[in-house]
Amino acid sequence: MLDFELLLVVVTAISGIIWVYDRIRRRRRAADAPVSYWVDLGRSLFPVILIVLVARSFVIEPFRIPSGSMLPTLESGDFILVNKFGYGLRLPVSHQLIAPVGDPERGDVVVFRYPPNPGQDYIKRIVGLPGDRITYANRRLSINGRPVPMESLGEWAKDDAFALLRERIDDDWHELLLHRNGNRRGFSARVPEGEYFVMGDNRDRSSDSRFWGTVPRDHLVGEAFFIWLSWNGGPNWSRMGQRID
């Protein structure tokens, strides 16, 4: 699988070398001396590629939602923006933290590198912080022994096999789905230091921390905050421009 981030770094480095070479050459020769096509292309692309690399690595990165594990919050075909600055600045490719900025909070919808396969990106909701005791029993989430407030909103309009509910994590409410024939298996775990417990809003149709464990801090990419496009066989105008809660 092609690592786009690594490719972007390599292309930026090559075009940057060409740009520096051209600057040195122009000092030694006439500014209007002819240049080859490749030198002209490299020096022209370098500023643009550098801006893209910096913005994508440290500020905002776009992602596409590939599945329904975060329904009803996010649908397959949603194109979202992720704030990469809020959890600290990390170097591209190595992902080493160079400037701590803020900490993830319960309820954040986050993109992260899937722990069993870091080359793959996942998106879920943080429900447990380091040190929390997370319990899931009778399809009800509890954090540190306290059941999370939950309210029924009736059947989901898009599929009556699902019940639509909303729950409150800390001070924020969000909607979630439970399938009529969903698994009622319980779960309880303590979140290790430096790691986070994540779950999908489509509780019975999500592969998350209940099955493969917690997410290390250095695997977090950023917080999802905006749907800028939604396309699944055609545009879904009602979802475009929505804030992600």
UniProtKB/TrEMBL annotation:
Signal peptide: none annotated. It is a multi-pass membrane protein. Gene3D superfamilies: Umud Fragment, subunit A. It comes from the Bacteria. Keywords: Hydrolase, Membrane, Protease, Transmembrane, Transmembrane helix. CDD domains: S26_SPase_I. The keyword Membrane applies. It catalyses: Cleavage of hydrophobic, N-terminal signal or leader sequences from secreted and periplasmic proteins. GO terms for molecular function: signal peptidase activity. It holds the Pfam family Peptidase_S26. Its main location: membrane. This is Signal peptidase I. It comes from Spiribacter pallidus.
